[in-house]
Amino acid sequence: MSRVDLAELDFFSAEVQECPFHVYRQLQDEAPVWQMPGTNVFVVTRYNDIREVIRDPGRFSNNFSALLNAGSSNKEVSAIYEQGYEMVETLLTQDPPRHRVYRNLVNKVFSNKRIEGMRPFIETMTEELIDQWIDEGEVDLLNRLCVPLPIYVIADQLGVPRSELTLLKKWSDASASRLGQLANEQQQLENARDIVEFQHYFADLIDRKREQPEDNIISDLANNTIDEGRLLTKPEILGMVQQILVAGNETSTNAIAGGVVLLIQNPEEQAKLRANPDLIPGAVEEILRLETPTAGMWRRVTEDAAVGGVDIPEGSFLMVRFAAGNRDESIFPCSGAMQVERDNADSHMAFGQGTHFCLGAQLARTELQIALTTLLRRTDNWGLVEGKNTLEHHPNVLLRGLMDLHISFDKATV
Ligand code: HEM
């Protein structure tokens, strides 16, 4: 791949985002902490530098909402948001010590025991989704497994009936689009309408769960007290649910879809999993490393600092590029190659690290393991359907995910 002129590089352009890996490598070699020309944004690409940044929330804050709200300076958009609930910083965009108050509660709500208890439901859903197309020989895998599976799982826990799943998907997409910051004005208006609709729907649901508690995540959020000895307010719960939707749906969908493509492109690695399914949990880590569905995240610099020997003034923004760190050759040799038996694959930073380490990591791993195990067991001879796959990704600054995935397959003979 040709080297790019860093003085001219438009890092967030659709072109670079579609195929970023040679740019990551060049930045790691030549400018591992690189200031985007004419901006106060620094892109951090080396594993150890990213690690240092994300483990220091004092100097590198997650309160980057100013960046997200920049797009809603449009008066019509703001007027729509005014009809909804206040957006409270809870998890992703909150810093310690306040972050801890919320995180302690959701850690309990997302306990290992609860996620383990969700396993039979995830298995049943996966089987049911595959039953619907197993005799067809070809499937739009993205829309008939990768998208619905995480939504079914989270909908069950959020108390949303199946008949309303399309709404949940619409709200999740709107929230992800807002986070991705590439929406045009028309989309910003639609996003605002969808997000406000989401807020009112869940505000009613919270009232109902307070009257009639159940054993699920929404009920726990509505009824458990935080360390301050009070229930969460509605805007606080809405903020959390919105993050759970965005952080949990898109990313898991993208990891399953990206994983299947990787296995099609690496038939020898796929054969190892078919021969020995015990390798699947390790393969999931390798898929997470290579796909890194949350390609990057923002940090706001709270005081003059230096990272990787580069001075960074207070008020700058860092783009910590997890996807680049996960291909740092000094940590993962032959980093672009898929090796399902790579011994340090689980050192990847696809779930972040430290204070904001992904709340849903165990759930996502469980979903991925079940989806791949079931697909490999029930289908064989995977191929990409010619003419139906662009293998391009949705334009998004933070999240990376395929736009289409149609595969051909044989029904496995058991
Ligand atoms: C493959 C799937 C997933 C990936 C790659 C992923 C990735 C990440 C990353 C990188 C972060 C850290 C962001 C930062 O450092 O600023 C994060 C945080 C978070 N994730 Fe995930 N995630 C996934 C699935 C999920 C699921 C299934 C849920 C919930 C159902 C979830 C909920 C969250 C939440 C709430 C946070 C914020 C935590 C906090 O700030 O304390 N994620 N995720």
- Report mean pLDDT, rounded to a whole number: 95
Strand tally is 10
CATH architecture of the largest domain: Orthogonal Bundle
Rg of Cα set: 21 Å
Write the CATH fold name of the largest domain.
Answer: Cytochrome p450
Number of helices: 17
> What is the domain total for the residues?
2
Question: What CATH first level of the largest domain would be assigned?
Answer: Mainly Alpha
Secondary-structure element string: HHEEHEHHHHEHHHHHHHHEEEEHHEE
How would you characterize the overall build of this protein?
The chain is of the alpha+beta class. It folds into two domains: 1-49 and 295-330 and 345-349, Uridine Diphospho-n-acetylenolpyruvylglucosamine Reductase, domain 2 (2-Layer Sandwich), CATH 3.30.43; 62-294 and 350-411, Cytochrome p450 (Orthogonal Bundle), CATH 1.10.630. Helices cover 51% and strands 9% of the residues. The protein has helices at 14-18, 21-30, 47-54, 65-69, 75-82, 98-109, 112-131, 141-146, 148-158, 165-180, 185-211, 217-223, 234-265, 267-275, 280-291, 322-325, 361-378, and strands at 33-35, 41-44, 60-61, 138-140, 297-301, 305-307, 310-312, 317-320, 379-384, 406-411. The strands form three sheets. Strands 1-2-8-5-3 form a five-stranded mixed beta sheet, covered by helices on one side. A three-stranded antiparallel beta sheet has the order 4-10-9. Strand 1 (33-35) and strand 2 (41-44) form a beta hairpin. Helix 9 runs antiparallel to helix 13 (234-265). It starts with 13 loop residues before the first helix and ends with a strand. The mean pLDDT is 95. Protoporphyrin IX containing FE binds at residues 54, 62, 91-92, 103, 154, 243-244, 247-248, 251-252, 255, 293-294, 297, 322, 350-352, 356, 358-360, 363-364.
